[in-house]
Structures are given as structure tokens and as C-alpha cells.
Amino acid sequence: MESQHEEAKAEWIREQLDDEDADEYTSGWDDLSDAYDELNVHDEPYYEDWDNNWVAPKQTRKGIFQESVDTASELMELSLFPSVEDNVLIMLHGHIVAALEGYLSATFISATLSSNDFIRKLVETDPEFADRKFTIKEIFSKHESLKSDIAKYLQDLIFHKIDKVRPMYKSVLGIDLGKTPWLFKAVALRHHCVHRAGYDHEGNKVSVSKDDIQLLIKRCSDLVDKIDNDVVDMLKPKPQKI
What span, in angstroms and rounded, lies between the C-alpha atoms of 36 and 89? Predict the structure, then answer.
């Protein structure tokens, strides 16, 4: 079963790279491998009805994130052998960053699909849609499937590419994520934690302490709180002018 999963993943990555000879040493392979794993982490689709309605998860997006960081906090309370603790902290770093990425992705999709104005801003500002071409006779069919196309595109988007996420939040939703150099570093470190079991490109073991995890939880939680408040304010009905 595991070999079938890896074969399917490799085939998908080669399709995205448009290179049938690509392998794990090809530029972009690791990022796409990460994306494939995250897109296939659930047995059932996260979003169910593409063409008609946005289907939210049973828990709130913030609730799902909070559950992840609460679990991480509880695990840090355990008394472990130093060698075990080092590896647990490495796994927790990857888990927390993944939880934030999931929140950023789900929140952006939900908010964008909630308004035709936001959908239009996305279509007009994102190069992926700006470069698409179709014939006159396709206008109506493309219009009917627009929301479905957008939902699928956003779900497939690699949301740990923070350089892409930040401007999308700003240009489409008008939400400024603020200065987050720590997040760029956390995402880069997550890559080593997830794909190299805590070792960097040179084979050096990365260092993650309990203080690092606690600080990461605080920064991620603060960012989630900010975005959640901004989204709530943004979606409030505007008072009518008399």
C-alpha cells in the first residue's frame, strides 16, 4: 500500500513539473511532495460540493488549529528521554506550522468564495487566472464553473509558499498579515523537519527547543486571532447609506 502511495505521488509530481524523468533531486520535487502529502491527508475530500456551495468542516477553522496547538502543548508536558524529546520537538514544529497552513488555506478559500467581489478580485489579480484563454463559445460554460475552478485551484495551491499567500490575502481580502519574517523561517525549518527528519541539506541536525515551540505556538496563535477577527469584521454587513 505504501509503495502504491509513493508511486502515485511520484507520478503526480512529474505531471506538475511536466518532466517524466524528474526524481527527488529535481528542483521543486520536495515542495510538491509536501503538497501531495497534505492534500491526501484525509480519506474524504475536505470540500465536498464544488459547484454549488462551500462546505465547511464540522469544526471551525480556528477550532481545528487550536486543537492542534493544544495537543502540542500537552505533549511538551511529558517527561521524555532527551533523544526522544529532541525528535518529538522536531515533529511538533512541523505539526504546528502545518496547522497554521491549513488555517490560512481554509480561511482564504471560505472568505473568497463567500463574495462575488472577492472572487472577481482573485480572478483579476492572480496570474493563474489572468493567463487563461478560452473561446467566445466557452464563455457561458466557464462562467458556470468559475467557482468550482477557483475552489479546486485554491485547494491545490501550495499554501506554505508564504510569499504567495501574503499578497493574495492583501489583494483579494484586504487583510494585511503584517511583518512575519519568523513565519518564513518556520516554514523553511518545517521543510527539514518533515522531509529530512530534522536534518538540513548539509546533514546537520536542526535544533528545536521547548522555548522555540512555545514561541512558535504564541506567534501562530496571535496570527490566527488577528486573521479571524479581520475576517469577522470584513464579512459584517455594512450599514446602508440613507
Answer: 24
Give per-residue pLDDT as tens, 70-100: 999 998 888 888 888 888 899 999 999 999 9
pLDDT tier for residue 188 given thresholds of 50, 70 and 90? confident
Cell of 84: 526522544
Burial (CB count within 10 angstroms: exposed 0-12, middle 13-18, buried 19+), residue 139: exposed
Instruction: Please check whether residue 111 is in contact with residue 231, taking contact to mean a CB–CB distance below 8 angstroms.
Output: yes
Q: Cα separations (Å) of 207 from 37, 81, 89, 196, 204?
A: 24, 16, 9, 13, 9
Nearest alpha carbon to residue 164 among 113, 79, 82, 104: 104
Q: For the chain, give me the number of helices (H) and strands (E)? A: 11, 0
